[in-house]
Amino acid sequence: MGAGASNQYLRNQVMTASPEQLQMMLYDGAIRYARQGRDAVARNDIESSFNHLTRAQRIVLEMLNGLRPEVNADLCTKMASLYNFVYRRLVDGSVNKDLEAIDDALKILEYQRETWALLLKKLAEERGQPTAKAPPEQPVPESISVEG
Q1: Using CB atoms within 10 A of its CB, is residue 16 exposed (0-12), middle (13-18) or buried (19+)?
Q2: What is the domain extent for residue 16?
Q3: Is 116:27 a contact under the CB 8 Å cutoff?
Q4: Which residue among 37, 56, 75, 85 has the highest number of C-beta atoms inside a 10 angstrom radius?
Q5: pTM, to two decimals
Q6: How far apart are CA 9 and CA 141, in angstroms?
Q7: CATH number of the structural domain spanning residue 101
């Protein structure tokens, strides 16, 4: 499959995904880019670490901006604090080449992804849909990672 076909497939995935699935894609993208940034920091590849960690930061900001306080203000306040912490740790990791800071962000993102997967499973059960294991990490189209 060529790059054009792959991009079209991913575009279709995003266009047909439910809001819950889109949130999962954001978690997957943030985790993937944070891991790639962490690996680049470990190899002292400054440009690559900056690029990957910046993409992870932008995805976290998208998640922060997607919060809807009119639905549940208390939960949004807590999630905003969590996303702000993750964002700051990713910035610290990028600026200071701090693997521990990136690991802190990754732990939270991975925990949140796992929690989200459990929620998707519960929703599927409530809707009478066949349940499956946690959704595998999905590739995230470039458009989701918000290029600057």
Answers
A1: exposed
A2: 3-145
A3: yes
A4: 56
A5: 0.80
A6: 9
A7: 1.20.120.340
